[in-house]
Amino acid sequence: MSSELVAEPDLRIFHQPAGPRASVASAESRPTSRRRIVYINGKFYIGVLNGVHRTADRLVRELDILAATDEFAHLDLRLMLPRRPNWAPPLNDIRKVAQRFGHHQAWEQLVLPLRAANGVLVNLANLAPLAHRRKLSMIHDAQFLISPESFPPRFQLGYKLLTPLIAATSHRVLTVSEYARDSLAAFKVSSHHKTVVIYNGADHILDVKPDAGVLDRLGLGCRPYALLFGAAAIYKNVQVVFAAFQQDLPAVQLVVLGATRASLEAAGLEPPVDAIFAGPVDDRALRALYESALCLLFPSRTEGFGLPPVEAMLCGCPVVAAPAGAIPEVCRDAVLYADIFSPEDWVEQIMSLKALPDLRQAKRLAGYHRAAKFTWRAAATRLLAQVEGMG
Predict the structure, then answer these.
(1) How far apart are CA 280 and CA 312, in angstroms?
(2) Residue 209: CA count within 13 A, CB half-sphere
(3) Sign of the C-alpha dihedral, residues 202, 206, 208, 210?
(4) What gap in Å lies between CA 101 and CA 289, rounded to an integer?
């Protein structure tokens, strides 16, 4: 092994904060008569923060930065936002347009097409109005068809009916990986030629300072720990990790993020008795946990993109993942892979990272360099290229 992999680098030095914004007129002061209007469906800002909504929000934030540059000064971006309390961020160059009933599906299907009739409509959270034809619609994946048992029947039915219609009435369908693109085509949601891949970014995790205090609050530090995002959905496959820790991993602590022990047990899962449940954590705490963890465990049977492994790699945290969904496409050989159904394989890969410092260091460096390719700026630029291509 090359000696350059032995030294423990500070991976944070590779991340440089975004430079100063271009000096152009603000959205309020620019003339709008000759600017092309682009509407953004902001209904998702009244929903809980999940993976789909995080992606949509990060794209909006980056679009706001790009809108301030001379390259895109000819675009008049407007966020159609529910008037009721929401978690939309402050924006400088995207106009917020309050919508009285913007939180209702009826508004999305009946009112939004009229309000956005004179422009392109961008929909980033799986749903879109059928009546608006000059639109781009992001459909993140086909999980509701690949693993239908993981979703409530009403959700399944709604998505099965709506997503093909949304795709058929969109100028282009956007998705987050080639795997997701292939899945949408296989299930006849959207054809290959109509679907464009825009990979997620992960660099938001480096925009915050790590909250080192989270390690003390959770009582970590006595032994190495592995992170797992807890979820009851069947396709998340957390039971294989639970089984691994119930077999032979006494030297490694399992830390479960997100879900509570009670919610997982109510779903018929059996977390290890000594697992630490951290609950929901913000990005500052998450970054600190990534940076000090032995590894992140990601056993999903299918993923449209897989944001946590990319976040973890960007923070210098090695990843053990199931070779499923978009994970091999996104992570390539920068992670260790463990069999979807074999607890013994998970034990072996976790212990290899603990016992072989050179292997862990190699995966840290490979992971960082792979993850650094996925930025929100690149994603937003590709999105605007699709807007420009609509004429």
Answers:
(1) 16
(2) 3
(3) positive
(4) 40
Q: Which residues pair with 129 in a beta bridge?
A: none
Query: Is 388 in contact with 66 (CB distance < 8 Å)?
Result: no
Contact 308, 229 (CB under 8 A): yes
Structural domain containing residue 379: 17-201+375-388
**Distance set, CA 185 to CA 141, 145, 182 (Å):** 11, 12, 5
What is the Cα–Cα distance from 302 to 16, expressed in whole angstroms? 32
3-state helix, strand, coil in the chain (%, to 5): 45, 15, 40
Question: Is the full-model pTM beyond 0.90?
Answer: no
- 294 SS3 class: coil
- Specify whether the backbone of 227 is left (phi greater than 0), alpha (psi in -120 to 50) or beta: beta
Question: Strands 135-138 and 95-99, how do they pair?
Answer: unpaired
**301 vs 385: CA distance, rounded Å:** 32
Q: Is 365 exposed, middle or buried (0-12, 13-18, 19+ CB in 10 A)?
A: middle
Residue type, 367: G
Q: What is the pLDDT of residue 2?
A: 32
Residue 194 CA to residue 9 CA, distance in Å, equals 43
Residue 289: inside a domain: yes
The strand pair at 319-321 and 195-197 is best described as unpaired
d(CA 31, CA 244): 62
CATH no. for residue 106?
3.40.50.2000
Answer whether 237's CB lies under 8 Å from 299's CB. yes
Q: What DSSP element (H or E) covers 313?
A: helix 307-314
- Alpha-carbon distance of 343 to 327, in angstroms, equals 19
pLDDT tens digits, residue range 271-314?
999 999 999 999 999 999 999 999 999 999 999 999 999 999 99
Whether 44 and 124 have beta carbons less than 8 Å apart is answered as yes
Q: Are 365 and 382 members of one domain? A: no
Residues 284 and 310 both lie in one domain = yes
> 3-state DSSP call for residue 78?
strand
Residue 1 lies in a domain: no
Lowest mean pLDDT among 4-18, 19-33, 72-86, 213-227: 4-18
